[in-house]
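Open question from group meeting: does this chain pack into something compact, or does most of it stay loose? Before anyone orders reagents, we agreed to write out a predicted structure and look at it together. Recording both the input and the output here so the notebook holds the full record.
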Amino acid sequence: MQGSDARRPIAVSIAGLAVFAVIAMGWYQVSTSARNALVVYCAHDLLYAEEVLRDFERETGIPVVIVPDTEATKSLGLVQRLIREKDHPACDVFWNNQLLGTVELAEQGVLEPYQGAGWKRMSQAFRDPNGLWTGFGGRLRVWIVNTDAMPATVQAIDERLTGDVSLMAIAEPMFGTTLSHFAVLWDEMGSLEMQAWYRDLRERGARVVPGNATVKDLVAAGVCDFGMTDTDDYFLAKADGAPVAMVPLRAPSGETICIPNSVAIIKGTQKRSHAERLLDYLLSEQSELRLAASKASQIPLGPVNESQIPADVRPLTKWARESVSLTDLATARRECLAWLTEEHAP
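Structure tokens returned:
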């Protein structure tokens, strides 16, 4: 009995070591998986992006770690993070839900060029000439109108803009596609005129709300009569049965404002070949048609079989071709953002 008791601590120790070894092996496997995974910073809505990225995993065997952004700070937070991480990058691929932040990263030297099959299928209007970024799956800036409250016409909107705007909603313009929209206005109107225009709207009671989704919700519910948002939010409201219609927002030049998703490889990535495969996957005809068929109803920007574009999205392809160019607006974006940040400071 004594011999049995004497051996027990040794047996317990061996068992403990075995458990520790199993745990250690598990942590090693998790750590190895994380090291081998492609890290994707993603500002696009995870509702749509995650499914695409998980299918890429299944089809290629390349694991993906997704780092998302928040709705309120869409794209801006990740752009700033990538600039901070420039000398020690933690990200391999950036899927942005708009373009100008990605252009800013190109100017800051954060991106690596890649002119693969996906880059080649896009028109020059939606790609960097050196391959630093490529656009795909666009959205248009639109007026969303509650048709129970007012007609969805340019004339009706213009009349409301010159009168009572207390039932108009606009997303905080320091973020996302609204910031891109304001950068266009900053460039075309000039900084002083644009500042006066925005201050006038706010002074007359226009509602500035956290994001485009909030604009959509307020108009769909009849709390606001009209507002500025994107086509993806409009389509979500329409799918929910809300009494809404849309009118394309046009820049002072008369052009529409089409804001593509954009994708880029981060400079210094240790997974270059895997990053290239993801870019070609996202920029393929298959992926663009998939995004067009999703509830976001995004607009294909490369050549696709038009018969496969959903009927609601098909007319938007013409509006997208009428878009103002965003590729040279990085300076306007920086200047406009600096002013807006000061303007909205507590």
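Observations to bring back to the group:
The radius of gyration is 24 Å.
The longest strand covers residues 134-146.
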